[in-house]
Write a structure and sequence with these properties.
134 residues, elongated, 5 strands, 4 helices, alpha+beta, Alpha-Beta Plaits
């Protein structure tokens, strides 16, 4: 009985540490964040035609900059061009129409809209990227 009276007061039963509540993470995770939320419209295009020359690329970049569009253009292996356009709705529509007509009256471009993957890179301004994406 003497042993019971002499219990060590410094010994505390083991308890698992409480994990902090992170309810805000669940609330945030349930709402998908728009990747391009500061643009009215974002489209990704595959353009076929005479697109693998310097004159077309120069025309494309100059026009996109003039329309204040963000995005990029990249040459694809199948002699087409992969293009991402982001900006105000009217400017993006105008750029798509100009792409369909081509830089010269004899150029007829086949413009096909492809679905966004959601992981497309986007920088401010319009850029021509190397085929590898860098």
């Amino acid at each position: 009985m003497a042993d019971d009276d002499e219990k060590d007061d410094n010994v505390v039963a083991f308890r698992r540490p409480e994990r902090p509540r992170v309810a805000w993470r669940k609330a945030r995770a349930s709402k998908p964040k728009r990747q391009f939320q500061h643009h009215d419209r974002v489209v990704r295009l595959r353009v076929r035609g005479l697109v693998q020359n310097d004159a077309f690329v120069r025309w494309l970049v100059e026009l996109a900059v003039e329309l204040r569009l963000d995005g990029w253009a990249r040459s694809a292996a199948d002699n087409s061009m992969d293009i991402l356009l982001a900006g105000e709705d009217g400017d993006v529509r105008q750029m798509v129409e100009l792409l369909r007509d081509g830089p010269r009256p004899v150029d007829m471009m086949l413009v096909e809209e492809i679905p966004l993957k959601g992981d497309e890179p986007l920088w401010q301004g319009f850029h021509h990227m190397s085929p590898s994406g860098r």
